[in-house]
Design a protein that fits this description.
Oligomer: single chain
Order of helices and strands: EHEEEEEEHEHHHHHHHHH
Distance between the termini: 53 Å
CATH architecture of the largest domain: Sandwich
Radius of gyration: 21 Å
Largest sheet: 6 strands, antiparallel
Length: 301
């Protein structure tokens, strides 16, 4: 299905393109890709080039795209395809917050961070050379997953929401693994930074230092901190606290363990410091958060 051109403000809105308001995913397979004005959107877009070539103009820069290219278009970036020659592509629109991607264990994969966060940030600097480029066999596999995902969202048979989420997760894992196994000179640098991010998100309960993270990225502490801030929107140490508090929130919601025990298990050695960090992250104290969100019958002090 081809949606009409965007409104004059050029920004595509989620409510106009996500056909099922209960599912934060939407798939459009365009073969061929039609002419479409310059536009941006208020959601993420995973693009897989299935056939042909084109010039992709994004945020004022122009890059050649061809079959096998995979990349993410972040929200609020204006883009358009020009000089299309047999171009066919799959657009997977997704709402990362609604999908709770922050909680996926796929975040242990450096390639996930490289593909979904780092490559979009460094695309211009790397002149698109850090993109994922799938060989024919993996492109066929990705195409198959996309078409199965499209069928689920179109037919809406019982259980389709779970199936759609599962297929998108499977696709994300496949692409993240592929990014790690087909490195270029530019993508190696992104994978090293992705490794540092993955280390934070899988070892948050342990002592983690800035020196350790910078060493994983093969960068100076100053350079690593600057790059990390640019990509994630937080400093490495602030992100570590953010991850710890998010995990603590999960335990506060789903278990009856004491707040002190949860603080220690999430890497905080001082319960008062934990409370301050948690309030900054979740806009409530741990006790307030649990009273509002905890399971009835499981709440302890």
């Amino acid at each position: 299905m081809v949606k009409p051109p965007p409104e004059p403000d050029n920004k595509l809105q989620k409510q106009d393109f996500f056909e099922d308001p209960t599912l934060p995913l939407q798939v459009y397979i365009r073969d061929p890709q039609p002419e479409f004005p310059v536009h941006s959107h208020g959601f993420d877009e995973l693009v897989i080039i299935l056939k042909g070539t084109a010039r992709h103009v994004i945020d004022g820069q122009e890059f050649l795209v061809r079959a096998g290219d995979v990349f993410v278009v972040s929200p609020n970036l204006e883009h358009q395809y020009r000089e299309m020659h047999g171009l066919a592509l799959a657009n997977i629109l997704f709402d990362s917050a609604a999908l709770a991607m922050e909680q996926w264990d796929i975040r242990a994969l450096p390639g996930f961070h490289a593909l979904f966060s780092l490559e979009p940030t460094f695309r211009t600097q790397h002149n698109f050379r850090s993109r994922l480029q799938l060989p024919e066999q993996k492109l066929d596999k990705a195409n198959g997953l996309v078409r199965e995902l499209s069928r689920e969202t179109e037919q809406r048979n019982p259980g389709y929401r779970v199936m759609a989420r599962g297929l998108f997760m499977q696709l994300a894992v496949m692409l993240s693994r592929a990014y790690s196994t087909t490195p270029t000179e530019e993508s190696i640098g992104l994978l090293r930074i992705g490794d540092a991010i993955a280390h934070i998100e899988t070892n948050f309960a342990e002592k983690i230092t800035l020196d350790e993270l910078a060493a994983k990225s093969h960068l100076s502490k100053r350079h690593f901190t600057r790059v990390f801030q640019e990509c994630i929107g937080r400093s490495p140490i602030d992100h570590l606290k953010h991850v710890r508090c998010k995990k603590a929130a999960e335990l506060l919601r789903g278990t009856g363990r004491t707040i002190t025990d949860i603080a220690f298990d999430c890497g905080f050695s001082d319960s008062n410091y934990f409370t301050r960090c948690f309030r900054q992250t979740m806009s409530a104290t741990p006790r307030q958060y649990r009273e509002k969100n905890g399971d009835i019958g499981t709440i302890q002090g």
